[in-house]
Design brief:
By secondary structure, this protein is mainly α. The protein folds into two domains: 33-74, no CATH class; 80-146, no CATH class. Helices cover 64% and strands 0% of the residues. It has seven helices and no strands.
């Protein structure tokens, strides 16, 4: 019985560590593919430079285009609302009650962010309790004889 508990306590964290460390393909990239993707953009850039088309600074000065289409600071829905670029749900899910407070303070007292972080905290708590219950029943269901 004691050997099985020790085995479980060592094996499962080691297994989860190995499975998380095996995702290295996501961080590799192909330089040739990147050059192919940007080849059309490079061709457009040389076309603009050789034919004397107006640059971005000249287009920004144009009164007809002042509506903000050429701004480099585009505001997409949800852009700038999340504290430090992290949604409130994840603040609560990862940091718990401290994340709720941090999301509320960092979002300039935004109650919606605090509510989302509270939902994240509740989800994380439910998942943790479920994992502990499943772990407990898995250990208790083992045969006690060696």
């Amino acid at each position: 019985m004691k050997h099985r508990k020790i085995f479980l306590l060592i094996f499962f964290p080691l297994l989860s560590y190995v499975t998380m460390a095996s995702g290295s393909d996501e961080f590799s990239f192909d330089n040739q593919l990147i050059k192919e993707e940007f080849s059309e953009l490079s061709a457009l850039e040389t076309l603009i430079a050789t034919n004397g088309y107006p640059g971005l600074s000249e287009l920004e000065d144009n009164q007809l285009l002042k509506s903000g289409y050429l701004s480099s600071n585009l505001s997409f829905p949800g852009n700038g609302e999340d504290p430090l670029g992290i949604p409130g749900f994840w603040w609560g899910c990862v940091l718990g009650p401290i994340g709720i407070i941090a999301a509320y303070i960092l979002s300039d007292n935004n109650k919606d962010q605090a509510r989302m972080s509270l939902n994240g905290c509740i989800v994380a708590t439910v998942v943790q309790v479920a994992v502990v219950v499943v772990w407990y029943f898995a250990i208790m269901s083992w045969n006690y004889t060696l």
